[in-house]
Amino acid sequence: MAKLNGVVLTSEAIEYNGAKYERYTGTPHVDDIVRVDDLEGTSEDYATEGAYYSVVRVDSYNDPQITDNEGDELNVDAVDGDGSGDVRVRLDGGLKLIYLREYVVLEPIADRSEEIIEQDGVKYRKVDRKPQVGDFVYATESINNMTRGKLYEIHHIDLAGDGAFKSDVNGTNYYPTIKEGRILVERIPNATADLEREVSELQTKLAETQAQLVIAQDPRSAFGKGDKVRLISGGGIRPLQGYCDSEIYEVNNPYTMGWSNKRVEIIGGTLPNGYALPTQIVKLTAEEVARVEEAAKWTAIGREVGEWKEGDIVKTLKAVGGHPVGTIGKLVYDTDYRKLRVESKGRVFSHDLRELIAPVESVVNLTVGGVN
Predict the structure, then answer these.
(1) Are the C-beta atoms of residues 57 and 65 closer than 8 Å to each other?
(2) Rounded to an integer, what distance in angstroms lies between the CA atom of residue 295 and that of residue 318?
């Protein structure tokens, strides 16, 4: 049959003689329809670009055969096929050719309705060909770390031509190395649904971007819950009663809705909560926070920072002599060295880098790592 007339193009398929057809990338069949696209060279002499032709035969290489505009007969044999998918028409002992890249195959939708899978508004169809990146493996059974009814996208093709995909346990499975409980499917293009999905995704991203922009433009975005901040102004004045300038506090809620939705809630004063403008607080650096925490530890035991006492239990932070890093020992006063040194298991060494484990005031008959 030569060029078909009466073909109606819809948004998702074509209609011919009351049947709907859509693009198909699997093995073609007799009575499928070929749409000829982008003809090159002499192909334009015997086929019409953009026209539709019925497949009258499929050769031994699965190449679809059509009858061209001039009604030339087909001669299907081994010389006419090489598995390339090119359409060949024989004329007067010579071959006329439409290249694979110049046409697409369309098949009746109803013919494969039992092979259509739909999930989340997207349709997939079973295909009988080698897997390709972007195809999906559909689990028909819950075996081999796969869940029945779930789709698994093929992310690469190995040297053997098998499609690799991630299983439920993030391991790599292959198709068609193992076919049990799984089939190969491809996503069916749907212009309308795809466009709607893209618009929806763009709208979601736009809304997220706008929300992030609003937050980024809010000066309070410089602060996060748990940040240590220094109050530089406004202390003692409502709503910062119980909070003093130059003191350090902690951010509890950077986006409190109270006080005209402009203030940062801080805690740590003599009252449960204070509310500071972003310009009234400064976030401490990591180094400053470390110094503050160190000072708080010493203040809690009534000492100045670095005020060591004989009998304190410490941990070494640097290997010295026979004391490796992490040695637990007791500070003893060495009259020869005229300073506190670390004693552990009967051996005494000087450790300037050490961490307080327990002050002497809290040590009562304590034995740690052989230290009395």
Answers:
(1) yes
(2) 22
Cα dihedral 296/301/305/311 (nearest 10): -140
Q: What is the rounded distance in angstroms from the CA atom of residue 117 to the CA atom of residue 323?
A: 69
Distance between CA atoms of 197 and 163, rounded to whole angstroms?
27
Q: How far is CA 248 from CA 16, 232, 234, 283, 303, in A?
A: 78, 9, 13, 9, 19
Classify residue 287 as left (phi > 0), alpha (psi -120 to 50) or beta: alpha
Nearest to 134 by CA among 93, 161, 164: 164
| Distance in angstroms (rounded) separating the CA atoms of residues 12 and 2 | 24
Q: Give pLDDT tens digits along the chain (372 positions).
A: 566 565 554 445 677 777 777 776 666 777 888 777 665 555 556 677 778 878 887 777 777 788 777 777 444 333 344 455 566 555 444 556 666 666 676 766 544 445 788 888 788 989 988 999 999 999 988 888 898 889 999 999 999 899 999 999 988 999 987 778 889 999 887 767 778 878 888 999 998 888 888 777 889 988 999 999 999 999 999 999 999 999 999 999 999 988 888 999 999 999 999 999 999 999 999 899 888 888 888 988 899 989 999 999 999 999 998 899 999 999 999 998 899 999 999 899 999 889 999 999 887 654 544 455
Q: Which residues make Cβ contacts (< 8 Å) with residue 215, sequence separation at least 6? A: 221
